[in-house]
Every structure is written in C-alpha cells, then in structure tokens.
Write a structure and sequence with these properties.
The protein has about 325 residues and is an alpha/beta fold. It is built from twelve helices and ten strands.
C-alpha cells in the first residue's frame, strides 16, 4: 500500500440502495477533509454501483471499485489493497457516522501515539429509529494489545467490530479478512491489536450501527450462523499455542459462541433445527462441558450464567415459552 494522504475510509457496498446515500453523506460531511472515500461495489444488482459513480463524479475524494460479488471480506480487502491513506477506517454501507467521528479518532491517536484506536457506537433501530447507547470504552486510556484482546474476547465495553475503530495502514501489511465468512472481524481484530502492541480507547460514540431486518445480523439460521463459533474455536487454539495469558478470555468467548448457536437453533424453524441437529448436539455438549468454567470465570453476567445453564440442560426453549406466557398473564 502506498501511503500518500491522511486517511482512507473503506465502504463495502452490496444491495443497500436505500441506505447508501445516508452513509456516504455522513462521511463526506466529516470535519476532517484530508481523506479518500473508497466505495467498493461488490457486484450489487441494484443501483448501488450507479450511486457510487454519481458520488465520484461530484467529489474528487471518492474512488469507486466495481467488482464481482465476493462478500464483505472480499470487498474490504479490495479497498485495503488500493488504499493510499496513512490511516484506515471502515464503515458498513447501511450504517453512518457522526460528523466528528474521524476528527475524534485521529486526535486520540495523536495524543496517545498509537496505531489503533477503539471508540464507541450508537445502536439505531430500523423499526423505531431510536438511538440507544451501544458498547463504548469507559474512559480514555492506553492499553496493551494483550489487554485489548482480553477486553474484545469478553465484550468489556468493546468488541471485535471493524468499524468503530481507526487503524494505521501498516497494520494490514500481512493481514486480510477471511473470504466467504461472516463475523469476519472476529479472527482479525485481536491480531491487529496484538500487532499494534498497544491501543487507545476513546470514550466517544461516533459510529451509528443500524439494526435492520434482512442484514447479516438478522439472517435466518444457515451454515453461516456457525462461523462465529468456528472462528472462536480457532482463536482459542491459537491462544493455547501462542498467548497463554489470553486462554481464559478466549475460552469464555468460545463458550458464548456455542451458547449463541443454541439460542439461534432453539428459536429457529423446526426444519432448521432438524437440518442443523449435529451443530445443536455439538454446541450443547461443549457448553455443558465448559459450564463449570463459565460459572466461575468472572466474565459472565448473572443473566448469561442462567441462560447458558438452561441451554446446556436443554431447557432454554420451554422456559422461554413459560416466561413469555407468565409475562402475558400480568
């Protein structure tokens, strides 16, 4: 990557015709102006490609890549490959950012003299358009890469999401997002943290994460549902081999991934539960085996402990139905 400007902002674009203008407008309205915006049209079948070209014709900071559909990781990687900025940022095309997002992130990076900055987010509901506080660091501080990985693994006021962070471009010199996977930032962000050595935490909510029906987050049960637990299993193995200090938090994340599998399957259609019965058995067995660790590790909340105990016992679905019935009786 040839670094010439200050900042490259990479936006993968696919089937978001209704949301893309809001996203791009929020980026072009940033209070810092020395940036390039790379819009990666990932073979979108709607008007997204034309919208990208229209923005490029109006603003010289916008660059457009048109490529065959390859998924979110492929699109992000394509943007990384041509980025010219000293810093990289990512925005998903159905989300948007506050006007001072990158001013705050860049200022924090300079104050702390680090290669990685983690900020916070707003959760925005498509149904109500309500903005509620999402994950956000509690205070500004510099932490080691190891400590940042621990906090990512335990959802300690932040997680592995690619988009509420700022990265020095050279962190990606030998790192890319895995192709054909969802939760693709899970196996990448902790590696960037360890490579950076230390990172700054910025207690500002600068990213607006739009929760919409039909997005990857809300897809029905499929093979991709289990990518998260596959990632966490590989991370746990990597930590056992190379980072013993991270084994306990990585173990916790892997347990929670199996709990996620069970919750998704317990609330899925009967045909999906039948189709993925092996994954259900494997996750329930793993959760049951690890339940003593979960209950004693100090990372789990009381609700997580209760939920995971019910999931391991196969009681989550009937108890959930009973709770909903009793709540409706009030």
């Amino acid at each position: 990557m040839e670094n010439r400007g200050l900042l490259s902002i990479i936006v993968p674009v696919y089937k978001v015709e209704s949301y893309l203008p809001r996203c791009v407008d929020s980026i072009l309205a940033q209070t810092v102006s020395d940036f390039e915006l790379i819009l990666v049209d990932d073979g979108s079948p709607d008007r997204c490609g034309a919208i990208c070209d229209e923005y490029a014709a109006r603003d010289s900071r916008v660059r457009v890549i048109h490529k065959e559909n390859g998924g979110l990781s492929s699109a992000r990687n394509a943007g990384i490959d041509i980025a010219r900025g000293q810093w990289l940022g990512f925005v998903d095309s159905d989300d948007y950012i506050t006007p001072d997002c990158y001013e705050k992130l860049l200022s924090c990076a300079r104050r702390r003299n680090v290669k990685l900055v983690c900020a916070g987010r707003w959760d925005v509901s498509e149904k109500t358009v309500e903005m509620t506080p999402g994950l956000c660091p509690e205070k500004e501080e510099t932490v080691s890469g190891m400590e940042l990985a621990r906090r990512i693994f335990t959802w300690d006021h932040l997680d592995s999401a690619a988009w509420d962070k700022l990265y020095r471009a050279d962190l990606f010199s030998d790192i890319r997002y895995p192709l054909g996977r969802v939760n693709e930032d899970t196996p990448v962000t902790y590696r960037l943290a360890l490579k950076a050595g230390e990172a700054a935490l910025c207690p500002e909510r600068v990213y607006c994460y739009y929760h919409r029906q039909g997005s990857i987050t809300y897809s029905k049960v499929s093979e991709k549902t289990f990518h998260f637990s596959e990632h966490t299993r590989q991370i746990l193995q990597n930590c056992r081999e190379q980072y013993p200090e991270l084994v306990a938090p990585a173990r916790f994340m892997n347990i929670r991934a199996h709990a996620y599998n069970l919750k998704m399957l317990d609330t899925a259609l009967p045909e999906d539960r039948e189709r993925f019965s092996r994954q259900y058995r494997d996750s329930r067995r793993e959760l049951g085996r690890e339940l003593p660790f979960l209950l004693g590790c100090g990372y789990a909340t009381p609700r997580e402990k209760l939920e995971d105990t019910l999931l391991a016992a196969g009681l989550y679905r009937p108890m959930r139905k009973a709770f909903r019935f009793l709540r409706g009786k009030r």
